[in-house]
Amino acid sequence: MSQADAAAQVDTSKLPNVTDVTAANITEYVHQVNASCPDDRTRFIFKSMVQHLHDFVRETSLTSEEWMTAVKFLTDTGKISTDLRSGGPEFLHRASTLVDILNNAKPPNATEATVLGPFFTDDAHDIESGGGIASEDKGDYMYVYGKVTDTKGNGIPGVVIETWETDGNGLYDNQDPNRDGPECRGRIHAKPDGTYSYRAVVPVGYSIPGDGPVGRMVQVLNRHTFRPAHIHMMLKAKGYETLTTALYLKTDKFLGSDVVFGVKSSLAVDLEYVKDPKAALSRGFPQARPHHALHYDFVLATPEEGANAREKLTLAGGKA
């Protein structure tokens, strides 16, 4: 069954619309989504577990580094487990979005961060602004463009944008056992004035693996396993905090019920449908055909601005 067919069978009409996750509301959103679990005892256990885990993250002001140390310990324990050496098979990192929110708070006018996800690689090709990240047969054409500025509106020179996405089948290149190099990913070098552009494909939403303990747990809670279509970006520039974020397609049916709670309303975007086939050629696409365009301007914070935002969040008990 294709990703599209599987997605079509999921009914999201009765789920709460979760499109603007913050440190203040993520716990309640998780409770609302899990509330459809048909078993009273299971629902009660998971509500208590989520509440205590999120409270623990807030109480300790857990850092991303401390969280990843714990994750690595649990992962290593799972890897060493056998029938003869018990240690735990697989672990669910349900508080990772909250950890990300608390450790990557930004001032109000800066672009929000979201979770990195498991599909980033460091072998992307360097591409000048205007170049392409996807081969010809990987999906529908999409042109991504915009500008990167500071919080005062000034263009930032020297910005490098790592970007990665699924192909038209909802798969990342590192899910391909025959992968021989980067595909649907690239390292874009913006122009000196902060403007950037690149050719990509329209991303497709996908399901997290459903055949392991994590997938089975989500299904026990009567939840779906899908993420809405999105494109990842990691922006780096000297003198500014690194921004790890993603842009989500507003038209995706799973926008309000992302299985990992990564969506924020400021990161939800519309695609412009460009009918003129000649426009595709002018933007460097190989074929003259209609395409989609995604425009988004990013705002980066300085380390001082980011630190001030995180201090305010900490003083508010992680719920601002």
From TrEMBL:
<keyword id="KW-0560">Oxidoreductase</keyword>
<keyword id="KW-0479">Metal-binding</keyword>
<keyword id="KW-0223">Dioxygenase</keyword>
<comment type="similarity">
    <text>Belongs to the intradiol ring-cleavage dioxygenase family.</text>
</comment>
<dbReference type="InterPro" id="IPR015889">
    <property type="entry name" value="Intradiol_dOase_core"/>
</dbReference>
<dbReference type="InterPro" id="IPR050770">
    <property type="entry name" value="Intradiol_RC_Dioxygenase"/>
</dbReference>
<dbReference type="GO" id="GO:0018576">
    <property type="term" value="F:catechol 1,2-dioxygenase activity"/>
</dbReference>
<feature type="domain" description="Intradiol ring-cleavage dioxygenases">
    <location>
        <begin position="134"/>
        <end position="300"/>
    </location>
</feature>
<dbReference type="InterPro" id="IPR000627">
    <property type="entry name" value="Intradiol_dOase_C"/>
</dbReference>
<dbReference type="Pfam" id="PF04444">
    <property type="entry name" value="Dioxygenase_N"/>
</dbReference>
<dbReference type="GO" id="GO:0008199">
    <property type="term" value="F:ferric iron binding"/>
</dbReference>
<protein>
    <recommendedName>
        <fullName>Intradiol ring-cleavage dioxygenases domain-containing protein</fullName>
    </recommendedName>
</protein>
<dbReference type="Pfam" id="PF00775">
    <property type="entry name" value="Dioxygenase_C"/>
</dbReference>
<dbReference type="InterPro" id="IPR007535">
    <property type="entry name" value="Catechol_dOase_N"/>
</dbReference>
<feature type="domain" description="Catechol dioxygenase N-terminal">
    <location>
        <begin position="39"/>
        <end position="110"/>
    </location>
</feature>
<dbReference type="GO" id="GO:0009712">
    <property type="term" value="P:catechol-containing compound metabolic process"/>
</dbReference>
<keyword id="KW-0408">Iron</keyword>
